[in-house]
Amino acid sequence: MNPSVFDAHIDTLLKLPDAESFLQGNKVTHVDQPRAIRAGVTQLLTAVCAEAAKNQVAAFHYGISLYRVVKEKSSIELLLLLEGCQPLMEIENREEIIELLSFASLTWNGENSLGGGIGSDTGLKAAGKNIALQLHDAGVILDVSHLCDQSRKDLLSLGIRTVATHCNCRSILDNPRNLPDDDIREIASSGGVIGVTFVPDFLGKDASIDTIADHLEHIVEITDITHAGMGSDFDGTINLPAGVRDCSVWPEIFELLDRRGWDQKSIEAVAGDNWRRITLEN
Questions:
Q1: Which domain range does residue 75 map to?
Q2: How many CB atoms within 10 Å of residue 20?
Q3: What total of structural domains would you count in the chain?
Q4: C-alpha distances in angstroms, 153 versus 93, 115, 123, 184?
Q5: For 35-94, what is each residue's pLDDT tens digit?
Q6: Cβ atoms within 10 A of the Cβ of 229, count?
Q7: How many CB atoms lie within 10 A of CB 64?
Q8: CATH number of the domain to which 230 belongs
């Protein structure tokens, strides 16, 4: 029996022209409601990555508005991740937006007023520490996925729960977007989860469903089954691993884990139960 999927990172919102494209299906994005339902998806963590846009505030407002409409109408549960919190610092209704958030990443790839993304080597700034603690106190879970090594270490040192919604293992592939084993362990010790991402550049040579499983198994090996999950990054990457077309791939991934000897409870844990647990706890 296929487990229900909680995908902890998709970038589909800012790829959509309107809500109906998600709700009724389309041929442009990796994820839409009809395909996701058929594949067993029950929860989606949808990112608004406004810092990647030329007009950050406009992209931010568009993404938030579209999220509200899709969430209200979708039969899949949607949760919101703000990927790059700089727009949050530039709006008047900050508290209202924070109430919508389930997860937040302080930066995208570059440096902002809060800290350093992977394109920098800047540590977390005072404003970054302050907003991280404010978000944590409001029940928002902090995502380390786009932080550079120094900012990530600074965030981990605050002693709050952290996650990586879409990161892989640096010991398998040495890439700045992948996590060292010590940081994986520290995220786990905070009660967090690491979501393996499908971006080929972060999986390794000849990226495939098998390399997705390799990263999952490494996380489980150095922590335990309760700290590994999925964060595909569908619609956040142009290229996908061999054998992955779109979100319809989920059953094939779980069939592979079964062939590798995973029991059903462990498959259910990484498919979604681990992410559901921490969102309910927060």
A1: 5-281
A2: 14
A3: 1
A4: 30, 11, 8, 11
A5: 999 999 999 999 999 888 778 888 888 999 999 999 999 999 999 999 999 999 988 889
A6: 31
A7: 20
A8: 3.20.20.140
